[in-house]
Design goal:
By secondary structure, this protein is α+β, with helices and mostly antiparallel strands. The protein has 22 helices and 31 strands. The strands form seven sheets. The chain has a nine-stranded mixed sheet with strand order 11-17-18-19-20-21-22-10-23. Strands 4-3-2-1-7-6-5 form a seven-stranded antiparallel sheet, with helices on one face. A four-stranded antiparallel sheet has the order 27-24-31-30. α20 links the parallel β20 and β21. Its EC number is 3.1.4.11.
């Protein structure tokens, strides 16, 4: 990659500044400085970069498309909510040099290599930060400063002993491999070594049989254990000699425990593992509210980045609120507010690029889109009549729900519709659906009943016919939006092809008053829940109480970090991150007795006990904006989200002045009555006796995805992004 390249940094059509960009020698950091002043403006780590987009793939670069060709433009996209970096190179060749170079640096590798790379990078980064005079050596004073930077509060005498042991040259400084020795001594995992020696006869290695014993007794691996043991040795043992002898060293044992196979999250559940041939209403569906907004609900910015970010997180239900714009072109924005606007065409173009992709991973399962109301409609709309599985179901005389499997690569529109589904499908030149006269008559009568059901409803329908484009109406097939008038009314007159939207307050009242009826309703029809209009700052409600009654489309403000989005990410991080999670069997039965407010009314298998021993933490990050030299006092809180009877939390004591390798060795225990709906959230906080604790990191997962045994929990930031190598080490037991 070229170094010191002069490029334009673009923030808007009128703000384009020239900056020198340079990849540093560590191949992990890029800095840029002003051409005019020569001062370094900023720097970022390669590990912060999620992807690189070529061409005019941002609103900023689209605004300068007439001035600069796409071959010279690219966008650096960062993890989390950090803004993109839009750049214009001096030539197409320079742009390609940077694009391809960055992609090679951020390309995912196999986990063992990544783990080792993270460790080496972490060591190198800290060495460079602490080496104040940049002479490539560190004296003991610099090491003491380093320990504070690394969140370590260590006795000075002990630190000096480690320093002297690593100083093989007896020069009074550490350099190169000496610093690596110091780091290894600092990061010695006594709790892991003790566990290793418990199963190792000679204390130096685990034979194949000893590793099998560990996997069976502690990790509860009961199928193909010998084959698994061989795979782990081949994959994680760093010594070629040990691999040839089929043994695992202490280093290899630690590598395994830090790997996906040693994670608390069942690696088999990371892939698509659930049945995708059930009706849509049998799934929880990852859903966003006002997806186009990346800030607040009143004056916030509307951006295609909102759609890109949501889709990358596995979201499968988006909102596209469309309103008539100038010159007959629809615009997307939050109606009756001061939010900015984006052309509908840009939104459609973005969905075309990202709807069924997540990085290099394909997301083939259907995308649902909720829309607003407009009278104009782009002419290039494909006529949906007679396509897909719809006619087959109608021909059978039953309105059966389609499945995610059958709707692969389809986009479903949720919205208002003029008339009946049959009217859309039975267009000119199409054969009429093969149903009996009685069925046709009954459905026609039902439609007439609906249109005459009161003056307000009748006038609203007439208004729809006057203002809604017929072509748009025809595109609404499965998700016809209908008002909710009670569960009895829905059972008598609604169809599985319809959907109702409820505010969070209305949903809570129904949960409180008619919990079991709500669960039964959601076993055969889709329900969408949306945030209160009072949440103008884009805050979120708890999705768990809505999932407890089987609501499928629980729309959240994806732009706002917090516990609510942690729960959403935790639930949908399974099943290939496809955005669909199959509901438990008792929530797919229209005659179920289940009521989340009273689990005893349902004849489930009985409560289980979840026992979590919180053993240790590793290399926990500092609190954002903390004072220089401050060291955290970490504690771990385990939170259970589920039915009301299961809601609970417990926490460990705090460890003073040690964010580097704290030891808790505390056991927490929970009883779960409905584990099928439970989410477990592990939170690390910095204890503060005078004010609220500060957030350090978290990890959330569904109970169904927990692997028992000795496991690492790899922590995530408030934005939901990885913060390697920060982790917790725990021991999990599940008993009935």
């Amino acid at each position: 990659m070229q170094q010191g390249t002069l490029m334009r940094k673009v923030k808007s059509k009128s703000w384009k500044k020239q900056r020198y960009f340079k990849l540093q020698e560590d191949c992990m950091t890029i800095w840029y400085q002003s051409k005019r002043t020569g001062k370094t403006e900023s720097a970022f780590s390669i590990s912060d970069v999620e992807t690189v987009r070529e061409g005019h793939q941002s609103e900023v670069l689209q605004s300068v498309a007439e001035e600069f060709p796409p071959e010279r433009c690219f966008t650096i996209v960062f993890y989390g909510r950090r803004g993109n970096l839009d750049l214009i190179a001096g030539s197409a060749e320079e742009a390609q040099c940077w694009v391809q170079g960055l992609r090679q640096l951020i390309e995912p590798r196999s986990f063992p290599l990544t783990f080792a790379l993270v460790s080496r990078t972490w060591i190198r980064d800290w060495f460079q930060k602490a080496d104040k005079n940049k002479d490539g050596r560190m004296n003991f004073k610099e090491v003491q400063r380093l320990l504070k930077m690394m969140n370590v509060g260590m006795n000075e005498d002990h630190a000096l002993r480690l320093f002297q042991d690593a100083d093989k040259s007896e020069s009074g400084t550490l350099e190169g491999e000496e610093f690596v020795l110091f780091y290894k001594a600092l990061t010695q995992r006594e709790e892991v070594l003790s566990l290793f020696q418990e199963f190792s006869e000679d204390g130096k290695k685990l034979t194949l049989l000893e590793l099998v014993d560990f996997l069976r007794q502690e990790q509860l691996e009961d199928e193909g254990t010998e084959e698994l043991a061989m795979e782990l040795i081949d994959k994680y043992e760093p010594s070629e000699t040990a691999r040839a002898r089929h043994v695992l060293s202490a280093d290899g044992f630690l590598m395994y425990l830090c790997s996906p196979e040693g994670s608390i999250f069942n690696p088999q559940h990371r892939a698509l593992w659930q049945d995708m041939s059930q009706p849509l209403c049998h799934y929880f569906i990852s859903s966003s509210h006002n997806t186009y907004l990346i800030e607040d609900q009143i004056r916030g910015q509307s951006s295609i980045e909102g759609y890109i970010r949501a889709l990358k997180r596995g979201c499968r239900c988006l909102e596209v609120d469309c309103w008539d714009g100038p010159n007959g072109e629809p615009m997307v924005y939050h109606g009756h507010t001061f939010t900015s606007k984006i052309p509908f065409r840009e939104v459609v173009s973005t969905l075309g690029k990202y709807a069924f992709k997540q990085g290099k991973t394909l997301l083939p399962h259907p995308l649902l889109s909720a829309e607003g109301s407009w009278s104009c409609w782009p002419p290039a709309v494909q006529d949906p009549r007679g396509q897909g599985p719809w006619r087959r179901w109608l021909a059978q005389g039953a309105f059966l729900s389609p499945t995610p499997q059958e709707l692969k690569h389809k986009i479903l529109l949720k919205g208002k519709k003029i008339g009946r589904l049959e009217d859309t499908l039975d267009g000119p030149g199409d054969e009429a659906p093969d149903v009996s006269d009685d069925d046709n008559g009954a459905e026609a009568e039902e439609e007439r009943r609906r249109t005459k059901e009161g003056r307000t409803h009748g006038s609203a329908l007439q208004k729809d016919k006057e203002s809604l484009a017929q072509a748009l109406s025809d595109c609404v097939i499965y998700c016809k939006n209908v008002p909710f008038r009670g569960f009895q009314e829905a059972r008598s007159h609604s169809r599985p092809s319809e959907i109702s939207s409820l505010s969070e307050a209305k949903a809570r009242k129904l949960i409180r008053d008619e919990g079991n009826e709500f669960v039964r309703h959601n076993a055969w029809q889709l329900t969408r829940i949306y945030p209160s209009g009072m949440r103008t700052v884009s805050s979120n409600y708890s999705p768990q109480e809505m999932w407890n009654v089987g609501c499928q489309i629980v729309a959240l403000n994806f732009q706002t970090a917090g516990t609510e989005m942690d729960l959403c990410d935790g639930l949908f991080s399974q099943n290939g991150c496809c955005g669909y999670v199959l509901k438990p069997p008792f929530m797919r039965d229209k005659e179920t007795l289940f009521n989340p407010s009273d689990p005893s009314s349902w004849e489930g298998p009985g409560p289980i006990t979840l026992t979590i021993q919180v053993i240790s933490g590793q290399q926990l990050p500092k609190v954002a904006n903390s004072k220089e030299g401050a060291i955290i006092d970490p504690l771990v809180r385990v939170e259970i989200y589920g039915v009301p009877a299961d809601q609970a939390h417990q926490e460990t004591k705090y460890i003073e002045n040690n964010g580097f390798n704290p030891r808790w060795d505390e056991t927490l225990q929970f009883q779960l009555h409905v584990p099928e709906l439970a989410l477990i959230r592990f939170v690390v906080e910095d204890y503060d006796k005078t004010s609220r604790n500060d957030f350090v990191g978290q990890f959330t997962l569904a109970f169904a995805n927990i692997k028992p045994g000795y496991r690492h929990i790899h922590l995530l930031s408030k934005d939901g992004t990885s913060i390697p190598p920060s982790s917790l080490f725990v021991h999990i037991r599940i008993t009935e």
